[in-house]
Amino acid sequence: MNIIAVNLVALGVVVLACSGMFFSGLGQLADFPGIQFETAESHVILLVVGALMAVGGIALLIVNPKKAA
Q: Looking at residues 24-53, what average pLDDT do you find?
C-alpha cells in the first residue's frame, strides 16, 4: 500500500510542477481507397487531479503507516 501512496504523491507533484500533464495516444484509423489517415487523440491531466493525487497519497501514508513486526 505504501508503494501506491508514494507513486500517487510523486505523480501528483510532477503534474503540479508541469502545470498539468499533456499526452497523446493513437486514435482511429480512417481508410479511404488509396489513402490512409491516422489520428492522434490529445489528453490532459488537470492541476486539480494532480493535487488530488498528491493529497490522496499523503493521506494513505498517514492513515496506513508501516506496522512494525
A: 80
